[in-house]
Design a protein that fits this description.
12-stranded antiparallel beta barrel, mainly beta, about 5% helix, Porin, about 240 residues
Amino acid sequence: MRRAFTILAMVLCGLAAPPVAIAGPWARDAGDVFLSASLTAEEARNDLLMGLIQPDTTTGLYAEIGLGHRLTFGLDIQRSDGGETTLGFLRHTLTPPDATWQFAFDLGAGQRRTTAIDDSTLIRFGLSLGRGFGAGNGPWFLPMAHQGGWLTLEARATQDLAFDEPILQAEATIGLAMSDRLRLISTLKVEHWPRSEALFSYLPSLVYDIRPGTSVQLGGRLSDGGADVVGLTLGIWQAF
């Protein structure tokens, strides 16, 4: 079970549009570049409660480049003790930049190398929907004052050619700008792997802009279902 979760972690890898954000349906302008480097440590919840702390660590590099014509190229590389996954994708935003709701689809392909199974090829298809909203106190589900934010819904199917069934993922994310430099991001995610139970995760993050274009991220992960895991992520984001 724990090995399956490690492989899973490797493969996964607003306002009108968030100034610095990972994924989502918004197209990046031609020539715009976004980079993210991260380090994640995860431990089984029971082991953590018993004081047996030997976390699995994963390093990640994520990049997006705006190509123009509402096209964005992305690259996601995840590496851990169990192996490495590299996946490239092309996202096409179907809606114009001034549309209230943004809609996009993406196609991707990559390769997974692990110590547990033979190398395999990945093919991915995804859909994403999002919109920004202005400052205020928000409706009942946003009981705090904020300076604006964004909401995204995403669904992806990744076919690992080593399996007969696809890997299915869906997530909902809400981001709030609490100040000019601080954002709160919360994500609810559900995933299903072949021959595994569904995995439910809550991923909160704090993102702080240390200077224009550069942000640091402190995130957590609490998972239940296919693997009961607690995780912590430290990342740095850079936009050009």
